[in-house]
């Protein structure tokens, strides 16, 4: 799962016993050589699904990390793209990869940007946000978008109960809950806290109109359902 240039077991252990911010500061130089980085296939499928809905003006990568999602924005947006993250280490790596991007260090749970962007995306970040914090994140993205702006992100279908992945993810989340109960500072990283139904409800409560579209290029489950869907949350357009 990790390349020879990726983090060592000791480095991962130190990261896991740190706060989310400090952990990602430590991991940042090697993050793109870990399985935690969003695969190019998901980025490409997202870009393909969004392209017919554009072109877009300014784009924002929410919890941008090392900037993988800015590849998507760069292919879709006619104006400058930006990324926001609270890890200085991750932002430093993103700046190297995207020297022309505008990068902002901020906590997305209290995002203060106002009607500056036409498209916002996020990849693999919602597991670092507790369900109780998600409404504040979505409200901040809603403020950051211009009227008619779009917030988009992929969500994978939950593995079936009979799948080894189901039990692996369940076990991982259980270990993280125990870790956070006995160790401070907490490290928020869960895989089973973002079911589509509750995410839709939170987006709707923040003022978005929500639809989804299947990312068919990423395959289907045995029952024919897509493995991934793209959440499309639209801010109400200005009636004028």
From TrEMBL:
<dbReference type="GO" id="GO:0032259">
    <property type="term" value="P:methylation"/>
</dbReference>
<keyword id="KW-0489">Methyltransferase</keyword>
<keyword id="KW-0808">Transferase</keyword>
<protein>
    <submittedName>
        <fullName>Methyltransferase</fullName>
    </submittedName>
</protein>
<dbReference type="GO" id="GO:0008168">
    <property type="term" value="F:methyltransferase activity"/>
</dbReference>
<dbReference type="InterPro" id="IPR029063">
    <property type="entry name" value="SAM-dependent_MTases_sf"/>
</dbReference>
<feature type="domain" description="Methyltransferase">
    <location>
        <begin position="60"/>
        <end position="149"/>
    </location>
</feature>
<dbReference type="Pfam" id="PF13649">
    <property type="entry name" value="Methyltransf_25"/>
</dbReference>
<dbReference type="InterPro" id="IPR041698">
    <property type="entry name" value="Methyltransf_25"/>
</dbReference>
């Amino acid at each position: 799962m990790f390349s020879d240039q990726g983090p060592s077991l000791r480095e991962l252990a130190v990261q896991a016993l740190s706060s989310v911010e400090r952990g990602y500061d430590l991991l940042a130089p090697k993050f793109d050589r870990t399985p935690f980085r969003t695969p190019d296939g998901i980025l490409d499928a997202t870009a393909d699904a969004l392209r017919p809905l554009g072109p877009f003006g300014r784009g924002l990568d929410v919890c941008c990390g090392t900037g993988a999602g800015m590849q998507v924005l760069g292919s879709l947006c006619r104006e400058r793209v930006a990324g926001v993250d609270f890890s200085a280490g991750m932002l430093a790596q993103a700046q190297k990869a995207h020297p022309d991007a505008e990068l902002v260090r901020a906590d997305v749970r209290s995002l203060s940007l106002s009607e500056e962007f036409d498209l916002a995306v996020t990849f693999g970040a919602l597991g670092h946000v507790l369900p109780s914090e998600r409404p504040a994140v979505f409200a901040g993205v809603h403020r950051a978008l211009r009227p008619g702006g779009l917030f988009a992100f992929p969500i994978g279908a939950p593995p079936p109960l009979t799948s080894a992945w189901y039990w692996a993810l369940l076990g991982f989340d259980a270990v993280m809950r125990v870790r956070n109960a006995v160790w401070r500072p907490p490290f928020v990283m869960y895989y089973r806290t973002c079911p589509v139904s509750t995410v839709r409800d939170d987006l709707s409560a923040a003022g978005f109109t929500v639809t989804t579209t299947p990312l068919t290029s990423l395959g289907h489950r045995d029952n024919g359902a897509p493995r991934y869907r793209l959440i499309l949350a639209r801010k109400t357009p200005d009636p004028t």
